[in-house]
């Protein structure tokens, strides 16, 4: 069986950046991605804060170029879901649904996924009124009412995006102050289509095939009430943006973690020699495309150094 220099688990900005750097250094590199390249960024419609992106840059457009760039430098890619890893030895073994992969070094860039409210009806009505992706589903709510749950950057930015489609957008937040950056808040407060429902949580989502109502609770008084869809509309949208959780279950008990985030040093080393982590899956203070891409570049160069020490090959980055 072939032994790659580096196997990268995950094809988001961190994984693709690691692939680019490793490929460019002529390391034999494979990226394993289970489904869709780009991770969370493919559901982002506007990427204002990636250096060099000024106007018209979307998540998919940036990721498309990142994939092409990794390919250009000879990084191999395969679609598979990793089910198990053996990371302790000099040869790391990655087991997937479709095959087994061997590598001298592994870079884990599995990312994170959205948190759910966890209330009754949320799962049942996902895709039937409940959504976690404004760019994917906004068009379904053209001229309808939508509610956005959350108070961070994602909730407020996505709510503003939804105002381009929906008749009315109401942000439901569990406190009376947003967590979002001040600049984002200012834009939201100035947007005439935006409404705010403070100190409120969603307790239950109801419907008949599609969402028709939801039960909300006032966090101050504890009172609950049911919000019904406008009679003519028959439904409304509920978009949930209440944070993320790392996709790290696979590494539980195998790599040092904190609250599910993999612990690394500044050079992306985990506590296992030859195993690196990059992007949103690792413990860090800022989870953005720019930091994920930077992590990936560092992880690849450090993996190169590790292999160099292992077998004496020198890589030029
Ligand atoms: P976040 O900053 O963690 O905010 C999560 C929001 O959801 C908070 O307002 C929180 O309320 C609320 N929340 C959490 N659990 C909840 C629950 N069970 N029920 C109701 N509300 C709940 O998450 P995010 O907005 O998804 O952002 C994640 C990271 O991505 C952040 O670092 C953010 O800066 C970054 N991001 C950046 C941009 C940008 O810079 N353009 C855009 C999107 C995301 P509390 O405030 O009460 O805790």
Question: What structural keywords apply?
Answer:
elongated, 29% strand, 317 residues, alpha/beta, FAD/NAD(P)-binding domain, 7-stranded mixed beta sheet
Brief summary of the model shown:
Helix content is 23%, strand content 29%. It has helices at 13-24, 59-72, 134-137, 153-162, 182-190, 289-311; strands at 3-9, 29-33, 76-79, 82-86, 92-96, 100-108, 112-114, 130-131, 145-149, 168-172, 194-197, 200-208, 210-218, 224-228, 237-240, 244-246, 257-258, 261-262, 275-277.
Helix and strand topology:
Elements (H helix, E strand, L loop, with lengths): L2 E7 L3 H12 L4 E5 L25 H14 L3 E4 L2 E5 L5 E5 L3 E9 L3 E3 L15 E2 L2 H4 L7 E5 L3 H10 L5 E5 L9 H9 L3 E4 L2 E9 L1 E9 L5 E5 L8 E4 L3 E3 L10 E2 L2 E2 L12 E3 L11 H23 L6
Parallel strand pairs: 1-2, 1-6, 2-3, 6-19, 8-15, 9-10, 9-15, 10-11
Antiparallel strand pairs: 4-5, 5-6, 7-16, 12-13, 13-14, 17-18
Helix pairs in contact: 1-2, 1-6, 4-5
The structure holds NADP nicotinamide-adenine-dinucleotide phosphate.
Give an account of the 3D structure.
The protein has six helices and 19 strands. It folds into two domains: 179 residues, FAD/NAD(P)-binding domain; 111 residues, FAD/NAD(P)-binding domain (3-Layer(bba) Sandwich). It is elongated. Strand 2, helix 2 and strand 3 form a beta-alpha-beta unit. Helix 1 packs parallel to helix 2, helix 1 packs parallel to helix 6 and helix 4 runs parallel beside helix 5. The strands form five sheets. Strands 1, 2, 3, 4, 5, 6 and 19 form a seven-stranded mixed beta sheet that branches. The protein has a five-stranded parallel beta sheet with strand order 8-15-9-10-11. The two termini are 27 Å apart. It has 317 residues and is an alpha/beta fold. The structure holds NADP nicotinamide-adenine-dinucleotide phosphate.
